[in-house]
């Protein structure tokens, strides 16, 4: 149970650090909001997170 807490703490730390970086980032102009590269990168991050969670649950 202790290792699960450590993994959860690490996950929350990385997640919150990503949110902090977003909050300090530049504002996005409306013309750049539909950038295809950014959308692809967002989908890739979500898929990696899903793969990580599935691997964690199976292991």
From TrEMBL:
Keywords: Membrane, Signal, Transmembrane, Transmembrane helix. It comes from the Eukaryota. The chain crosses the membrane at residues 41-58. InterPro entries: AGP16/20/22/41. It comes from Dioscorea zingiberensis. Residues 1-25 form the signal peptide. This is Arabinogalactan peptide 22.
């Amino acid at each position: 149970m202790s290792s699960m807490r450590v993994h959860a703490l690490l996950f929350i730390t990385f997640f919150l650090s990503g949110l902090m970086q977003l909050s300090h980032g530049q504002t996005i102009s409306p013309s750049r909001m539909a950038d295809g590269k950014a959308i692809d990168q967002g989908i890739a991050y979500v898929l990696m997170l899903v793969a990580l969670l599935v691997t964690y649950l199976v292991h």
